[in-house]
Amino acid sequence: MELTVVQGDITEQQVDAVVNAANRAMRGGGGVDGAIHRAVGPEVLADCERRFPRGLATGDAGWTTAGAMPSRWVVHVVGPNFSAGERDRSLLTGCYARALAVADGLGALTMAFPLVSAGIYGWPKDDAVDAAVETLRATPTEVRAARLVAFDAATYDLIAERLRG
Hints:
Layout: E1 2-7, E2 17-22, H1 31-40, H2 42-51, E3 61-65, E4 73-78, H3 89-106, E5 110-113, H4 125-138, E6 145-150, H5 153-164
Parallel strand pairs: 1-6, 2-4, 2-5, 5-6
Antiparallel strand pairs: 3-4
């Protein structure tokens, strides 16, 4: 799989599947989750309510349609909330591995990922980048191209440095 980084808005990525850093309730929220729910329109919230009536567990993943976004699907993952004491790194790496497994089930060949848990949930950014890069490189998948989408220049630089290393 080709792994790259871009700086920009994850909701504008032209890929088969965009990964959403969701909360357990799967009803929208802040950060990446809020941006995606605003971009996709109300039908995706209805899809979340129908497909995930009890939400999703931390570390798990599921998919919905992508509504008005250019992608075909949204793969929702629930990362651990570091600030609330959820510090099991396997829950974080599991989000990336599960997202790839869901993508494989859908037949998605291109994906865009945010840094899961590195924003509102407070996971230390250096380790969040390492977890993403290590897991995406090590997980067997049919996905041909994955990009990490950095919202700001500092995060872009950090991810680009790890990808070179």
